[in-house]
Specification:
Elements (H helix, E strand, L loop, with lengths): L1 H17 L3 H12 L4 H7 L6 H41 L17 H15 L3 E2 L5 E3 H4 L18 E4 L7 E3 L5 H9 L4 E10 L11 E12 L3 H16 L5 E6 L4 E10 L16 E10 L1 H6 L7 E9 H9 L12 H4 L3
Parallel strand pairs: 1-5
Antiparallel strand pairs: 2-4, 3-4, 5-6, 6-10, 7-8, 8-9, 9-10
Bound molecules: 3,4-dihydroxyphenylalanine (DAH).
């Protein structure tokens, strides 16, 4: 019996030497340590042996079992290790070399400013909505109290998609104000939304004008909303973006879709109000047009102006970004000069 055990041990050790992968190792384990292995069989048949022999054989069999188990463990470790190192060695990979840097992109400065603006209004309870860049004449003009031949159309040098078809004509929206109408057509007060987006004008470009730029439209409609709510909201907005030191100025202005209308300017951050190129030497930078939603606009979307009132505003995003970063030419944003863009 002892001889037999010795043979099993020798054979097992020999065979283990030749094992080269995890699958073969598992077969080996089943064969020599499994329930049906000859070693387990020998241990099981101990009961039939005379007491003297039982002690010797039992002790030896257990010794062999422990030895094979520890060899199994060692082999397992070895195989795992070589799984990691062998491809590296054979392909000549040096894992200690530093990796190649992966170039990561970044957000465009206007996208960053847009996100910040939306975040400020979101914190004041405004929901963000979006609408089409290609717009109907009806939403861009008619429904905003700017009918055909209204002089206010001159204010918006329009890029037409198909001109001459009245309210059904399509154009590239000249402002984000059409989103006021689109939203009020489907929602009832209380309304608090902002609509960021691109707008287009048929205009020659210069340091302060682009033919495509970004607006954020704001609209709040509810019972007893007053001009004070508009002022409070825009004051808070300017403070959040430019800090406590900036002064905010409200002056009368005219937009057909609001009454009264105002123009909002903040004291120039570049020169602290002294006058510089950024503010056109006036000390103030216009940042928004705003006002109380015109009763006719409310009526057109079936909101009763006797019960409800609202304020609206439109913020120029590039202006804000220029002020925040001291940029004095709007064309830099869209000329794709990486030396400029990489600074943000
Ligand atoms: N849409 C106007 C523009 O682009 C700006 C504006 C003025 C928006 C007054 C408003 C507003 O919502 O109430 O010139």
């Amino acid at each position: 019996m002892l001889e037999q055990l010795k043979d099993i041990h020798r054979q097992a050790v020999e065979e283990l030497d030749g094992v080269a992968d995890a699958k073969a190792l598992e077969l080996w384990r089943v064969r020599y340590l499994g329930k049906k292995s000859s070693l387990t069989g020998a241990l099981r048949s101990l009961a039939a042996l005379p007491l003297e022999e039982r002690r010797d054989v039992g002790a030896r069999a257990n010794e062999i079992k422990r030895d094979l188990e520890s060899r199994l463990e060692e082999k397992e470790r070895f195989l795992q290790q070589s799984l990691l190192t062998s491809p590296l060695a054979s392909q000549g990979i040096d894992v200690t070399l530093p990796g190649r840097p992966i170039p990561t992109g970044r957000l465009h400065p206007i996208t960053q400013t847009l996100n910040e603006i939306c975040c400020v209004f979101r914190n004041m309870g405004f929901q963000t909505i979006e609408g089409p860049d290609v717009e109907w004449d009806y939403y861009n003009f008619e429904a905003l109290n700017i009918p055909q031949h209204h002089p206010a159309r001159d204010r918006f040098a329009t890029l037409w998609i198909d001109a001459g078809a009245g309210a059904k004509a399509r154009l590239l929206r000249t402002h984000t104000s059409p989103m006021q109408i689109r939203w009020m057509e489907r929602e009832r007060p209380p309304i608090r939304v902002i609509a960021p987006g691109r707008v287009y004008r048929y205009e020659a470009t210069d340091a302060t004008h682009e033919s495509m730029f970004c607006n954020v439209e704001g609209l709040a409609v509810d019972r007893s909303i007053t001009l004070a709510d508009l002022k409070g909201t825009l004051f808070e907005f300017c403070r959040c973006l430019f800090g406590e030191e900036r002064q905010v100025r409200f002056r009368c202005d005219y937009f057909p879709f609001v009454e009264p209308g105002v123009e909002v300017a903040i004291s120039c951050a570049a020169c602290d109000g002294a006058g510089c190129r950024v503010c056109g030497y006036s000390g103030w930078v216009e940042t928004a047009g705003a006002g109380m939603v015109h009763p006719d606009v409310l009526r057109r979307v079936d909101i009763d102006p006797q019960t409800y009132s609202g304020f609206a505003f439109g913020v120029g995003v590039e202006r804000i970004s220029m002020l925040r970063h001291g940029i004095d030419d709007i064309r830099l944003f869209y000329s794709n000069d990486l030396r400029f863009l990489r600074q943000f």
